[in-house]
Amino acid sequence: METTLLPVPLAPEISLHLADGGVGLFDGTAGAFSSDVPPPFWLFVWAGGQALARHVLDHPEIVRGRTVLDVASGSGVAAIAAARAGASRVTAMDVDPLAVAAAARNAAANQVTVDTRAVDVADLDVPAEVILAGDVFYTRSVADRMTVRLLRAAREGSRILVGDPGRGYFPERLFTRVPEYVVPVPAALEETESVRPGVWEMRATNSPA
């Protein structure tokens, strides 16, 4: 699918190679979902990732001089924001190799250095002082596995920041909301013209129960 280098609505300091605004997530698959091939999430800049990027750019002290990991990075918007904000090292990881390639391409377009890895969150072993995760609680199975891994990282000392616009499987009880944003989104993607994602910080002392 063709892409265009476009500014991120909530973080116009960053430009990404994205699908046209009238394109939906499953348009390239005739509206079908296949568990064998991940949907092209990386073609879009999701609201949770935009909120994370804006928060990091506005508060660079969160990542400045620190190692940062962007989990399920997709387009790489949060990773790029961390690099621009002065992180000492940024790694973007995603289970989809095409997303990893997209994040690398977008980092290059923004003239920042971001390491990339194609790895499932369950197999993740990249120590980081700050972990960013945008829009990662979109199905029960993904949310459960993501929660287990993020809790483990929090207990190991990582600071966990999540961007979420109210997805149904977000474990809000484990987090404290920091700010909230209004993000314009393509109607073809979210069936609305704007959503209100929050940036949430995980409480390190929580248990999965």
Can you tag this structure with a few keywords?
209 residues, alpha/beta, Rossmann fold, 7-stranded mixed sheet, two-stranded antiparallel sheet, 23% strand, globular
Can you describe what's shown?
With 209 residues, the chain is α/β, with parallel strands linked by helices. It has one domain (4-202): Rossmann fold (3-Layer(aba) Sandwich). It has helices at 47-58, 77-84, 97-109, 140-155, 187-190; strands at 4-7, 15-18, 67-71, 89-94, 115-118, 130-134, 159-164, 175-180, 183-184, 194-195, 198-202. A seven-stranded mixed β-sheet has the order 5-4-3-6-7-11-8, with helices on both faces. The chain has a two-stranded antiparallel sheet with strand order 1-2. Strands 9-10 form a two-stranded antiparallel ribbon. Strand 3, helix 2 and strand 4 form a beta-alpha-beta unit. Helix 1 packs parallel to helix 2 (77-84). Residues 28-35 have low confidence and may be disordered.
Q: Please identify the structural class as seen in this structure.
A: alpha/beta
Note the quaternary state here. single chain
In total, how many domains does the architecture comprise? 1
Strand order of the largest sheet: 5-4-3-6-7-11-8
The tally of helices reads: 5
Topology (elements, then pairings):
Elements: E1 4-7, E2 15-18, H1 47-58, E3 67-71, H2 77-84, E4 89-94, H3 97-109, E5 115-118, E6 130-134, H4 140-155, E7 159-164, E8 175-180, E9 183-184, H5 187-190, E10 194-195, E11 198-202
Helix pairs in contact: 1-2
